[in-house]
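Q: How would the structure tokens look for this protein?
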Amino acid sequence: MRTLAVSIAVVALSACGAKTGLPVADADCAAAPACCVPSAETCNGLDDDCDGVADDGVRCFVLNGTERIASIRTSACAADWYAYGSPATSSANPSPDIRSSGGIEVAVHEGPPACGGASLALIADQVDDGSGGTLVGTFTLDPAIASAVVLSDEPDECRYAAGTATCDWTWQPCCTDGVVLGPFPGDFCVDVALSGLSGVRAAVDVHDGPSRTVTAALSFEICGTTIPAVP
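A: Here is the predicted structure in token form.
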């Protein structure tokens, strides 16, 4: 595992070129001083606040060292968003609902600051889709945190020690299975390795916010890192 070796470039941009990432001559800036309109910085590779550095002061989440992904933000902490057993028994019931039939869904979740940081959630399968399944997951965390398994569907399915969580899942057609890891108060990386599949596809849907997914192999890495804010 890379120790927070996330390939996010800290790109200094001219004020005019910041919104597009394209170089703009200083003379053009002088002629059109409003060409960069400051807004709240977000993790998009652009210098939204026009301070000369892209993505500074915000945490970026990155898949496999290169692809930025957005978290799913809600007003609840990760365990409440995951909503295990409510309203259906023996199932996760997240809102927005990221479950899919025969799918392995992974998302970074962020709630209010009081939740203590971002969490990583995995949900396998969809309720009442006509088949059960099995899955083994190994999650290696850097840095190791004191108690990484926030929630697992059954008490004996996941174990955590020395920075590694291991989950052995078997679920019935009525149900889903999965885990919530975290919260991560600072920068982090999680290496994920999945095996022992039945009843699910041999690929992972990594969520880029609530409405887009990125396909990943059964072994992948998700990191969260923050570029220092420009004073």
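Residues 68-225 form one domain.

The longest helix spans residues 26-31.

Upvote if useful.
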